[in-house]
Amino acid sequence: MTPPLAEIPTVLRDIAITLVRYRLYARRPEGDLPDTVKDDHKEALRQLRELRDNRLTLGLPSTQKDVPEPGEFRVRSRPATFGGRDGLLEKY
């Protein structure tokens, strides 16, 4: 599978790093997060909102057309074991 972008924009990379840093600090048992980590997290969320609302761009050239998904997906599944009228749970 090919990534949707040939080159990752710096804006997205920096936002991802900031969000991961925040989550790693949040998992520490010591408690409070440093103010710089909190501030950077708020800024990253603001940038994501601006990207969503088209007030901030990724700096990529616009193609003005949808990019088709490569290939097709085929899905198979087994019959339900536990659920349904004849499932194992109905025998109890």
Structure description:
- The protein has helices at residues 10-26, 35-52.
- The mean pLDDT is 83.
- It is built from 2 helices and no strands.
- It is flat and about 60 Å long.
- It has 92 residues and is mostly helical.
- Helix 1 crosses helix 2.
- Helix content is 38%, strand content 0%.
- The longest helix has 18 residues, at 35-52.
- It has a domain at 6-60.
- The N and C termini lie far apart (45 Å).
- Residues 60-92 are annotated as: Disordered.
- Residues 66-75 have a biased composition (Basic and acidic residues).
- InterPro entries: Phage_Mu_GpJ.
Gist?
The chain has about 90 residues and is mainly α. The chain has helices at about 10-25, 35-50.
Task: From the structure above, extract its key features.
Phage_Mu_GpJ; single chain; mainly alpha; DUF1320 domain-containing protein; 92 residues; 2 helices
- Name the helicity range: 25-40%
Largest sheet: none
Radius of gyration: 22 Å
Structural class computed from helices and strand pairing: mainly alpha
Tell me, rounded to a whole number, the average pLDDT: 83
**What pattern of helices and strands is seen along the backbone?**
HH
Number of strands: 0
Shape, principal axes of CA atoms: flat
Gap between N and C termini: 45 Å
- As a percent range, the share of strand residues is under 5%
Report the uncertain regions: none
Number of separate helices: 2
Pfam family, one: Phage_Mu_Gp36
InterPro entries: Phage_Mu_GpJ
Region (Disordered): 60-92
Biased composition (Basic and acidic residues): 66-75
